[in-house]
Design a protein that fits this description.
Elements (H helix, E strand, L loop, with lengths): L1 H4 L2 H15 L30 E5 L5 E6 L6 E7 L7 E6 L5 E6 L5 E3 L3 H6 L8 H5 L4 E9 L6 E7 L15 H37 L1 H16 L2 H12 L3 H10 L3 H14 L3 H8 L4 H37 L10 H10 L2 H4 L6 H25 L10
Antiparallel strand pairs: 1-8, 2-7, 3-6, 3-8, 4-5, 4-7
Helix pairs in contact: 2-5, 2-14, 5-6, 5-8, 5-9, 5-11, 5-14, 6-9, 7-8, 9-11, 11-12, 11-14, 12-14
Amino acid sequence: MSALLKRWSFWSLLALVFIAIFGNRFFAAPPEAEVAASFSKPLWLDRSLPPTREITLTPEEPSVTLEWAYPPPAAFSLRTDLPESAAGLSVVWRRPDGSELTLAPLKKGLEVDGRDMAFKRALGLTPFGDAAGALFPGSGRYEVSVKGEGPWKGSVKIRLEGGRWGLLGTDQRGRDIAALFVAGVRVSLLVGIFATLIATFLGTSVGLLAGYAGGWTDSLLMRLVDLLLSIPLLPVLMALAAFWGKGLWQLILILSVFSWMGTARTIRALTLTLRDVPYIEGLRGLGAPSGYILRRHLLPETLPVLLATMTLGVPGAILSEAGLSFLGLSDPRVISWGRMLHEAQSFGAFTSGAWWMLLPPGLGIAFLCLIFLDLGKFLEERADPRLLSGGKP
């Protein structure tokens, strides 16, 4: 156990599991929510662009000051969340030169967009004028407040649509890529672990049965394994995904059904070397049932190699899921790293230079596969200590 605690892959896997379970709690909106303009850059990239931000006015904080050092935002909108209208109150915008503009009266259910003709006329602009440019004529300190006499309840939200958002920007739908990336961690771990567990169960059962029973049972099961190994995997996965549906659990089942053959061969080879050892012969001579021998003696002997095989099988399942999702054969409602790459390719992230849509899922897939490969190497070394000494006895 102490050796495992020294592996970088162990702590990295724990961190990813924590992110998969609790990661979405760090975001104000769900991953599928539109939070900013399409293809918004990350906040740390190109600081000349204005960030997307939302200003909230409440009775406790009826005035907000805004330091602005950017060009005008791409869009401006205002909406109220009030239980009732408040007569005599209005939202006022104050520019750095001291001039004030009345944006809207404080009404229940009010929604104002900077592109509305009525809103432009209220600001004294022509129908083709730029409302955001009129509100932000230059750099300086701006103030937005609710002014007038009388009480009011609820909130007023003003949204300024800029060109930057969050840690990793947004995609073609304006969704937060950081939130999508975190959601993809959960899907990749679910697919990789559960598909490998099901495939390991099938492969172990077939391998133990074939190796212990021998004869026509062994021949029949191994010919089935040879047949499945000879079938091209990707076309079959594509056909089954289209026939069975594109749900997450259907995808896991499809991947597991076509991933157990290597495990079956490995377990069969180990069983063949163990079934004729003296203590197994003695158990059979004493009348021990075959199920007892398989469960209590042969299966524990195969566990070290089985654990290593399981760990090394997870990257294959993750890559298969990513490949199917990239080809568009996964459920579009399921957020995965492969689906993110598919949408990035489909909506022009390559041509528009939106590399922040491509690198996170691609690096995530590679990093997660390296974690399980390193864990598999560690388990292989524990199963066969000769690997630690470079093959020397």
